[in-house]
Amino acid sequence: MMAKLTTTTTLAALLAFGLSGTALADIKIGATLSATGPAAFLGDPEAKTLEMLVKDLNAKGGINGEKVDLVSYDDGGDPNKARTFATRLVEDDEVVAIIGGTTTGTSMTIIPVAEDAEVPFISLAGAIEIIDPVRPFAFKTPHTDKMACAKIFENMKTRGFTRIGMISGSDGFGDSMRKQCLAIVGDYGIEVAADERYGPQDADMTPQLTNIKGTDGIQAVLNPGFGQGPAIVTRNYHQLAIDLPLYQSHGVASKGFIDLAGKDAAEGVRLPGTALLVGDLLPEGDPQKPVVDAYKAEFEKETGTPVSTFGGYAHDAFAILVDAIKRAGSDDPQAIRDAIEKTSGLVGTTGTVTMSPEDHLGLDLTAFRMLEIKDGGWTLVE
Predict the structure, then answer these.
(1) What is the mean pLDDT of each run of 10 residues along the chain (382 residues)?
(2) What does pTM read for this prediction?
(3) Per the CB 3.0–4.6 Å rule, which of 62, 64, 363, 366 could disulfide with 351?
(4) Residue ranges of domains in the chain, CATH in brackets
């Protein structure tokens, strides 16, 4: 593994390659993603995004003249497999950094592997626990679940809501976001009057929603969760004719959620999302517009499918990593880690990233956009 991307070829390397020129190794980047399984709607666009970006980068000459070798595994959303693949990436494949952790569960098993090996890891999952407390080698690109709660409660407060119901998934993400929302909801003068739960495999949330519907004074409902659960909640909500605003989390910010829930059922649902979903609605002066438009055009041309927030998370993780390696002038994991932590003003699909030793996310609430589903598409809430 080379120590410096900018160093000249050593005599030994020249001799080994017949004095034919430089013989530096590719920069190995690892990934373990949930490209199949229950979180495939998240992991599949992430995997396709990384493959596309590596291909494009190498066609343009790589990083500081060196090609990138992507070593990617599909953990199927299984935390045990994610840990196994992360171990393989650092021990056998000798990667200089890892991108992945499609879900909170898989991210949390990758973190100790990355920390022990002292290899930087950029997670693509939402839970705040990934970067709070701050760990030296763990970073992430999605907004935290706590930030999503804050964005939603800000919007609820502007609409005068003071009493809400909540129905949350019991998976890692849903459980974490529920706790974060309950911890800060009082700061917005809002009371959670009904608090229901559902399991990752549940196929009908009618009983829980019936309980919420029967609770006096409910003005809106929030569903912290990701995967198929929120789509089922949305369909059941529509079937029960609950005439109250429904909020979802940023964990379902994709066209796939609308398709799964159904156009009629999803109508009017609000959630915090990224600029990527409403690129065509952004003003020309918005700094994210060029980045969003370029990624959207390239991804949709390459895959024939719409972009999603989740592919955008992978886009930003790769951009952060490439930027860090360029600035470090090295593929040494410690040097890359240090450079990632000094990321400043990097414009991505999710927001403008500025990290620090105290902040391994680098985003604030201004990067979130409040979205509403209308006629099967996304609109911006002013």
Answers:
(1) 32 33 71 95 96 97 96 97 98 98 96 98 94 98 95 98 97 92 98 96 97 98 93 98 97 90 97 93 93 97 93 98 97 98 97 98 92 96 82
(2) 0.86
(3) 363
(4) 11-144+289-365 (3.40.50.2300), 145-277+368-380 (3.40.50.2300)
Q: How far apart are CA 110 and CA 83, in angstroms?
A: 5
Residues in contact with 10: Cβ distance below 8 Å, sequence separation at least 6, in sequence order: none
CA pair distance 39, 201, nearest whole angstrom: 12
Q: How far is CA 10 from the centre of its chain?
A: 41
User: Any bridge partners for residue 356, and if so which?
Assistant: 359
The owner of tokens 């879900």 is: 103
Structure tokens at 256: 């796939």
3-state secondary structure the chain: CCCCCCCCCCHHHHHHCCCCCCCCCCEEEEEEECCCCCCHHHHHHHHHHHHHHHHHHHHCCCECCECEEEEEEECCCCHHHHHHHHHHHHHCCCCCEEEECCCHHHHHHHHHHHHHHCCCEEECCCCHHHCCCCCCCEEECCCCHHHHHHHHHHHHHHCCCCEEEEEEECCHHHHHHHHHHHHHHHHHCCEEEEEEEECCCCCCCHHHHHHHHCCCCCCEEEECCCCHHHHHHHHHHHHCCCCCCEEECHHHCCHHHHHHHCHHHHCCCEEEECHHHHHHHCCCCCCCHHHHHHHHHHHHHHHCCCCCHHHHHHHHHHHHHHHHHHHHCCCCHHHHHHHHHCCCCEECCCCEECCECCECCCCCHHHCEEEEEECCEEEECC
